[in-house]
Amino acid sequence: MFNWLKSAILRGMVVVLPLGLTLWLLWWFGTSTEALLHRAITLVLPEHLYRPGMGIAAAVALLLVAGTLVNALIVRRLFASGEAFLDRIPVVKTIYGASRDFMKLLPAAGGHHDLRRVVLARFGDALVIGFVTRDDAAELGLSASVDGLVAVYFPMSYQIGGYTALLPRTAIEPLDLPVETAMRLVLTGGLSGGRTGSSGGA
User: Fold this and answer.
1) pLDDT for 116-161, tens place per residue?
2) Cα separation, 83 vs 192, whole angstroms
3) Fewest CB within 10 A of the end CB: N or C in the chain?
4) Which domains does the chain show, CATH number per domain?
């Protein structure tokens, strides 16, 4: 009886905790966004005309405008100039650069261009899933000794870290998986299944 009760509680936690955490994060993000933009909106709109939800609507509108404008040539140049300025400021460049590079891992943010393909690499007796970020490590401008090597990123489960290895092409094997599927499989420690199958050759 006790074992059945414990098993039922654990199964319930598996169902409820992820849902609860997701709802809590959505609630936290929504209330934080609403509170942040409330003051900005009431600077141009009388307080009595403000309605709950306007902050979130304004945030969505700002993201849509930013996502649309970033494709314009003049905006891209201004954005590049702004990034170059931030990259010259100590500490700021580290925080901004890390945040920018992390967001690039998202497919909608251009991840297909940065994580070019999924591969398998052998470390001892283990096969590790990685993502090619540079087909020629010479593009990194490190030294002539890396010419012909491939830069492969190996994320850790639940994105607690990761590392980049420069490997010869013969050390990697293409894996026939979409980037999103492989990333989900790696980040969840294999708990989220994916379509398996690999193609030979490098």
Assistant:
1) 788 998 888 888 898 888 887 777 776 656 667 888 888 887 666 7
2) 36
3) N
4) 2-103 (no CATH), 113-187 (2.30.30)
Asked which of 28-37, 73-82, 148-157 is least confident by mean pLDDT, the reply is 73-82
Task: Find all residues with CB under 8 Å of 173, minimum gap 6, and list them.
Answer: 119, 120, 121, 198, 200, 201, 202
Q: Annotate 68-104 with DSSP letters as a single string.
A: HHTTSHHHHHHHHHHHHHHTTSTTHHHHHHHHHHHHT
CA atoms within 13 A on the CB side of 92: 8
Helix, coil or strand: residue 105: coil
* Token representation of residue 37: 């933009």
Structure tokens at 44: 């141009």
Looking at residue 73, what is its pLDDT? 65
pTM (2 d.p.):
0.48
Q: Residue 164, exposed/middle/buried by CB under 10 A (0-12, 13-18, 19+)? A: middle
| 118: Cβ contacts below 8 Å, ≥ 6 apart | 129, 130, 131, 132, 174, 175, 177, 178, 179, 182
